[in-house]
Amino acid sequence: MKAAYINQIGTPEVVIYGDLPTPKPSRRQCLIKVAAVDVNPIDVYVRSGAIPAKLTFPFILGRDLAGMVVEASASVKDFKVGDRVWATSQGADGRPGTFAEFAAVDHRWLHPIPEGVSDDDAVALSLVGVTAQLGLVRNANLKAGEILFVNGGSGGVGSCVVQMAKILGARVVTTAGTDEKVAACRDLGADLAINYKTHDVVAAIKGFAPEGVNVWWETLREPDFDRTVALLATRGRMIIMAGRDARPPFPVGPFYVKDCSLHGLAMFNASAREQRTAANAINRWLAEGKLRARIDRVLPLAQAAEAHRLQEESTVHKSGALAGKIVLKP
Ligand SMILES: NC(=O)c1ccc[n+]([C@@H]2O[C@H](COP(=O)([O-])OP(=O)(O)OC[C@H]3O[C@@H](n4cnc5c(N)ncnc54)[C@H](OP(=O)(O)O)[C@@H]3O)[C@@H](O)[C@H]2O)c1
Q: Residue 237 — pLDDT band, cuts 50, 70, 90?
């Protein structure tokens, strides 16, 4: 089968598109004919070596897939040949990646694709959607009527946070880096979207939430706790989920006297069972037409190296080049 893989960590040029053996599904696995995969910032960090990961070479890249079951081991009862499925959290903890024509996936990580939902949309919402659902519901316990702020509402995670927070009944404030992306955030449902390059974000948040923000979702790798804690309401919650090297100062006094709480979130720690709960909610919202994928472009899998270059430029070097996910087609 064709696959996009690496034999060493390094720049995007180390990504090889070539032939690897088609996997055989073992006990509890289904063989999936992959229809679409997407790129996440973590793929870039793993490929570049920015985060240490145990890799066995050749290492197939990619965490997410959407496709069809073409073979199922006898022990699998919940999926059958012909079922359309999506998955995330592959390419980690010994599970092979998804950037290939076929992938063998344990059935516990598979979720059905609701009728009428495309492979591209399903895959573009997988990792980022599970992250957003877990953070909003399990970690932040967001309630209807509360005010949520998400820094970076046009990004992969941010665009899911905006939409899901609205579905959960919150009032949503967010930021984006261009007027087009600001408009896109409003289109996703944000009550207030602020261009962080041209507007005073702090003043805008204070105007919208004079009593403070109930939930602050930070997608940036350099959280500014002084700014955030000052804008949090009493019993406000903050989600942090990026920036492994970040060591910013933390305003202890202002934080504890407001009974605030801080939640670290790494979706890859969530068990298959926890992810199933998130996936069920995502599927329900997709089927109801309440959740939309934000896709910047669709490329052939053969262009995986270029996709990595673009994602790195946009997320790591903050070019803002992307306005949504890159979907790749094997
Ligand atoms: N812990 C986890 O479980 C988990 C899961 C998924 C992702 N992540 C991490 O979360 C981060 C975001 O992921 P992603 O997939 O959403 O990335 P992304 O699609 O590249 O989004 C990045 C966002 O940051 C915004 N941004 C950049 N500079 C900004 C600034 N100064 N102020 C406000 N917003 C700014 C961008 O807005 P513009 O484009 O409008 O400038 C964009 O919306 C990455 O570091 C990723 O590795 C962690």
A: very high
- Give 79's pLDDT tier (boundaries 50, 70, 90): very high
pLDDT of res. 47: 97
Q: Which residues contact 284 (CB under 8 A, 6 or more apart)?
A: none
The closest residue, in CA terms, to atom 2 on ligand 1 is: 266
Ligand 1 pocket test, candidate residues 123, 126, 157, most atoms within 8 A of CB: 157
Reported as a single tens digit per residue, the pLDDT across 192-221 is 999 999 999 999 999 999 999 999 999 999
Ligand 1 midpoint to CA 1 (Å): 33
Which residue type sits at 222? Answer: E
CB-CB contact of 263 with 136 (8 Å): no
Nearest to 175 by CA among 157, 189, 155, 196: 196
* DSSP3 helix / strand / coil % (the chain, rounded to 5): 35, 25, 40
Question: From the CA of 18, how far away is ligand 1's center (Å)?
Answer: 30
Q: Counting atoms of ligand 1 from 1, which one is nearest the CA of 40?
A: 15
Ligand 1 atom closest to the CA of 41, numbered from 1 = 47
| Closest atom of ligand 1 relative to the 178 alpha carbon | 40
Cα–Cα distance for residue pair 110/119, rounded to 1 Å: 14
Show the DSSP H helices in the chain as ranges: 41-48, 119-124, 126-133, 156-167, 179-188, 201-208, 225-231, 252-256, 272-287, 304-311
Provide the pLDDT for residue 52.
87
Tens of pLDDT, residue by residue over 108-159, are: 999 999 999 999 999 999 999 999 999 999 999 999 999 999 999 999 999 9
Residue nearest to atom 14 of ligand 1 (CA): 156
**In angstroms, what is the span from residue 180 Cα to ligand 1's centroid?**
17
27 C-alpha to ligand 1 centroid (Å): 37
